[in-house]
From TrEMBL:
UniProt-recorded name of the protein: OLC1v1035901C1
Transmembrane segments: 12-34, 105-126, 146-166, 178-205, 289-309, 341-363
Keywords from the UniProt entry: Ion transport, Membrane, Transmembrane, Transmembrane helix, Transport
Family annotation (InterPro entries): Cat_transpt, TrkH_K-transport
Subcellular location: Membrane
Main location: membrane
Organism: Oldenlandia corymbosa var. corymbosa
GO molecular-function term, one example from the UniProt record: sodium ion transmembrane transporter activity
GO cellular component, as recorded: plasma membrane
Amino acid sequence: MSTVEMEVFSNAQLIIMTFLMFLGGEVLTSLLALQFMKLKRTKDPKIANTQSDDNLDQIELGVINLSVVLENDQKSLEGHHHHHHQNQDQDLITINSKNIAFENILASIVVCYLLLVHFLGSTLIYTYFEIISNAKKVLREKGLNLATFSIFTTVSTFANCGFIPTNENMMIFKKNSGLLLIIIPQVLLGNTLYPACLRCFMWLLHKTTKRPELKYILKNPKVLGYDHLFTSLHSKSLAVTVAGFVAVQFSVFGVLEWNSEATSGMSGYQKVVGSLFQVVNSRHSGESVFDLSLISPAMIVIFVIMMYLPPYTCFLPTEDAKTSSTEADEAETATDRKRNIISYLFFSQLTYLAIFIILVCIAEREKLKEDPLNFSLLNIVVEVISAYRNVGFSMGYSCKRQIKANESCKDASYGFAGKWSNKGKLILIVVMFFGRLKKFNLESHKVWRMQ
């Protein structure tokens, strides 16, 4: 959520922001979870006491011959519960040791995926600006370094931050359809389609290398506990759902905004690509080619719904849904035993959002009275939901919408939150942190029954 104009930052500051966005990306932070799981398995005293240090080092480095292990893996897993009591601990140690090696392989694949997308994305953007002179002229007039812009945009898009080094975000490039088509896949690869694309990437590696370890991971994605690695059916369902959401938004946006003020001056092809770019960014990333304040309220409400939906929302077929539900129930039962009385006082995520919106309205109550067109309830809802899901969409602020004209007012290109009071901004900061850490509180409202 931008509260200052982006062009005030120097090239060095943009590089620092790029580094911070890269570190905070969902894909990179998911690698930490893999490392923590590996450390937990490595520090298991049962493993430490029964395996030599040399053997353990080989397992950690993935040097052991996993093809031999994999040949008997299925038999080992099926017969695990039928072994005698004295062999159960040894079986568990073996499984944990193999999982450590698989986690190393998976981590390497994720790193390759991460670096490959960033390299290709930055290269394509850089090449586009070198070829298209009018686009490069924009950067030259703004004093932006082309290499920094290319890397910054790729990192920001893939990490779903929504920052662009220009004050106008992507609106200044709304007629550069080629650039928009380069960026659209990066939005999907870094968030809503990440599990499906990761599985596809692993499948391609397996077909190329024929390594049995990759085949095992693809067939048993839940064994490693990596939240972003789905089954084949789940990945296909996710891809279809994402495409469905995009198609619905694109259709509605085309009907409502084709001849609107927001798309004026654009050719038919530019409108199609621009509309596709806008609706893809509504789930995450939040980069804009259109001024959201010029878009119809009905479309804004659809954007709010899309922003609220979790990135991996999908419609699962019955059998897989039942399996997921059973596993969730088992996990919930185990978790319920550890809960204390305080956890039952927590509300649902939607309830907390309503509370945050109310708090913002209280903090900005004077501006709601004095400047109702800018500080409307819909604008505040968009800002809060966008902050909660870390999307970055903003309705902006316009001095022309002021009922009581203020001569000292100056239009700025940063987001609507930039005009909020310090109290309102602090609440929005809390909302953003709450959105990033929401997974730790997703199950807290189960005790509430709405009938």
